[in-house]
From TrEMBL:
It comes from the Eukaryota. Belongs to the WD repeat SWD2 family. One of its GO terms (molecular function) is chromatin binding. One of its GO terms (cellular component) is Set1C/COMPASS complex. PANTHER family: WD REPEAT-CONTAINING PROTEIN 82, WD40 REPEAT PROTEIN SWD2. Keywords: Nucleus, Repeat, WD repeat. It comes from Dichotomopilus funicola. Transmembrane segments: none annotated. This is WD40-repeat-containing domain protein.
């Protein structure tokens, strides 16, 4: 495994490809001051792929809570972990027997959970220091489409093609709660951890539950399909790729394979803006979609930690929307505030929770940092 500077032919002439994390920009700088300065900085290429073998796709990207480790799950049944501060590959973990996708750090950086892709549909709890399993979480009878970790504990939610949502306490192998829903393919916690949302693309609803009383049914039902966007009549029916609350709890981001993403009011469910994606979406499938040869991802869009900006990958370039900007009043369409140039497709995207950095991926992993000379 090597961490490779960008090909110089692809890099802007001003790019310093060997700079360390921060690039001379304090990691505590407000995102508004550096959002237009992000540049692709370090490219990681797998050098352990045998000749003649296909290059794997990266299925998910996640950061640990301190923001010092970045993890990918990949289509060759491996987990790759990177040291963020030092900008280097840390270790490879193999899951050849069970496969791997949707790998997420727990609140302890030395343990992770991930979904299986082979043999069964169990979720696996792994200690990364010695690659040993702590526990299996068995209960789904279909492929897992989403894992969402509680923001304050290691309890988590899983969604599956078996039309169930399971709620888990990580200290026990038996699920502690179960919901039967139609295509519950995406889940997300609000930042307080007091409620969670489930997105059902087939029904067109996002359901919000009180975590303490989820058995009583949703406290809020958002009918996404009823929020028609003029000029984009089928926008909400193009495959949902990501569900995420902003860190201030005011907004919900619903990623889409269509011509844009949805920025929703977390309290009344109304569409605040349709985040238009010039050039269209990435080639990845949405969770739950079936297409021979197609590849899923954990989502190509995310909020910045400041809750103001939304980042998204695309066929090329990274797109950034400023949620404080007013959308077109006639159709609620909001154009990107910034387009960050990049030739490679960004099919998976994650923002570091502690540092001013991004990670994007398709078949290679890219770290993005603010360039003070841009």
């Amino acid at each position: 495994m090597t961490s490779t500077p960008m090909d110089l032919d692809d890099a802007p002439s001003s790019l310093n490809v060997i700079r360390s994390l921060g690039g001379g920009v304090p990691s505590t700088s407000p995102v508004s001051e550096i959002v237009s300065l992000y540049r692709p900085t370090k490219l990681f290429k797998r050098d352990d792929i045998k000749e003649g073998k296909p290059k794997p796709h990266i299925l998910s990207v996640d950061f640990d809570d301190p923001g010092e480790l970045c993890m990918t799950s990949e289509s060759d049944e491996t987990i790759q972990i990177y040291n963020v501060k030092e900008g280097r590959h840390e270790k490879s973990l193999l899951s050849k027997k069970y496969g791997v996708k949707l790998a997420k750090f727990t609140h302890t950086s030395t343990s992770i959970i991930y979904a299986s892709t082979q043999q069964n549909d169990a979720i696996r709890y792994l200690a990364t220091h010695d690659n040993s399993f702590i526990r299996y979480f068995e209960g789904h009878e279909g492929s897992v489409t989403s894992l969402a970790l509680h923001p304050g504990s290691d309890n988590f939610i899983s969604c599956s093609l078996d039309d169930t949502v399971l709620i888990w306490n990580i200290s026990t192998k038996q699920w502690v709660g179960k919901l039967f829903l139609n295509t519950p393919h995406l889940a997300a916690w609000d930042p307080s951890g007091n409620s969670f949302a489930i997105a059902s693309p087939l029904s067109g609803y996002i359901l919000i539950y009180d975590y303490r009383n989820y058995e009583k049914g949703p406290v809020t039902t958002i009918d996404v399909l009823s929020n028609r966007i003029p000029g984009y009549p089928d926008a909400a029916a193009r495959g949902w790729t990501k569900l995420e609350f902003s860190n201030d709890g005011k907004h919900i981001l619903l990623g889409s394979r269509g011509g844009g993403h949805f920025l929703l009011d977390a309290f009344d469910g109304s569409v605040k803006a349709y985040l238009k994606k010039p050039g269209g979406s990435t080639r990845r499938l949405a969770p739950g979609q079936v297409d021979a040869g197609g590849v899923e991802s954990s989502g190509e869009c995310c909020f910045a930690p400041d809750a103001r900006y939304v980042f998204s990958g695309a066929r090329s370039d990274l797109l950034v929307w400023d949620t404080l900007m007013a959308p077109n009043p006639d159709d609620k369409v909001l154009e990107p505030a910034h387009v960050l140039e990049e030739q490679r497709e960004a099919a998976v995207l994650a923002h570091n929770p502690r540092f001013n950095m991004l990670a994007s991926a398709d078949q290679d992993l890219m770290f993005w940092l603010p360039d003070p000379n841009a």
